[in-house]
Amino acid sequence: MPETRLLPKPNTTLPELPEYPAGTSEPYTPSALSYEFVDAEPVSIDWREAMGDNCEGWTSYEAFRGESGFVRVLTAGESSTDQDIDDDGLEQQFEELFPDVDPDETLDHELDLTAIEVWRAEVDDDGEEMPEGPAMNYYYPLGDRTDPQEAARDILRLPLCVVAFSEEMQDKGAPEFALALVGGGMNLSWEICEAYIRLGYFPPAHFDLPRMSGRADGSEHGNMELDRRIIRACRASLECIESRAKSGLEQLAGMEADIPP
Predict the structure, then answer these.
(1) Are 77 and 55 in contact (CB under 8 A)?
(2) Residues 92, 41: Cα–Cα separation, whole Å
(3) How many CB atoms lie within 10 A of CB 255?
(4) CA quadruple 221, 223, 228, 230: dihedral positive or negative?
(5) Which residues touch 156 (CB under 8 Å, ≥6 apart)?
(6) Phi, psi at residue 233, to the nearest 5°?
(7) Per residue in 206-228, pLDDT tens?
(8) Which 8-state DSSP code applies to residue 201?
(9) SS3 string of 105-174?
């Protein structure tokens, strides 16, 4: 009988952030990132009050990666052990995690299980996760074309979740989607800016990246190239605001000059 084999270690590395030029003298390609939220600011919110009496004011989405490598996106209060696994999503993640393994190859000859069936069993054995939703009373706006499930996956490992507001909350001024921190106790501007970049936006110019955070010198996570790219994206946001201000000032000066003495 052929020997039963184990699955290789899954490829769980996050995609690299795109490279950015160091200044606006080298134009950014339109498809790289959007400037939509460069002037956005945190919005104060009472999450408990916003939930409303009917508990339908908002829904949060948070991604978790289990020991098997499988990523689940859970809503607040939803247990990973109670979640049904979509077969299409399972197959897609298998291809991403094991690009060199044929999912239909028989891996466990004793039980006659294919590679994806072996992995499915590992996914079912993953530890229980239970997201708690937003932890700090602020949100950070996102675009109305956001897919909350995909967005939550894109910011995996960052201390944020994606929030979808109800139509009632939108009528009161909330955006359709936003980011929210799932933890606090320290300045998390680096992580918020990275989340915006991973979701396709230059980060809001509001955020000052703290120097005393273990970032930018590699001591926090050893990825100085990641920090360099976040800094460049933040610079682009500030340069955009500066350019807008300069253009506005020039326009006002021209209008003032046109006023008869």
Answers:
(1) no
(2) 36
(3) 9
(4) negative
(5) 14, 63, 65, 71
(6) -65, -40
(7) 999 988 666 766 555 667 888 88
(8) B
(9) CEEECCCCEEHHHHHHHHHHCCCCCCCCCCCCCEEEEECCCCCHHHHHHHCCCCCEEEEEECHHHHHCCC
Single-letter amino acid, residue 253: A
CB within 8 Å of 208: residues ≥ 6 apart: 189
β-bridge partners, 21: none
Question: Which residues, 6 or more positions from 47, have their beta carbon under 8 angstroms from its beta carbon?
Answer: 58, 133, 134, 137, 180
Give the containing element (helix H, strand E) for 40: none
CB of 114 within 8 A of CB of 107? yes
**Alpha carbons 260 and 256: distance in angstroms, whole number:** 9
Nearest to 133 by CA among 82, 173, 188, 74: 74
pLDDT in tens, 94-143: 999 999 999 998 887 777 889 999 999 999 888 788 888 999 999 999 98
pLDDT for the residue numbered 62: 95
Using CA atoms, how far apart are residues 118 and 150, in angstroms rounded to an integer?
A: 25
Domain boundaries, the chain: 82-128
Q: Report residue 244: phi and psi, to 5°.
A: -65, -45
pLDDT for 55-81, tens place per residue? 899 999 999 998 899 999 999 877 787
pLDDT at 29 over 50: no
C-alpha closest to that of 141 among 63, 235, 38:
38
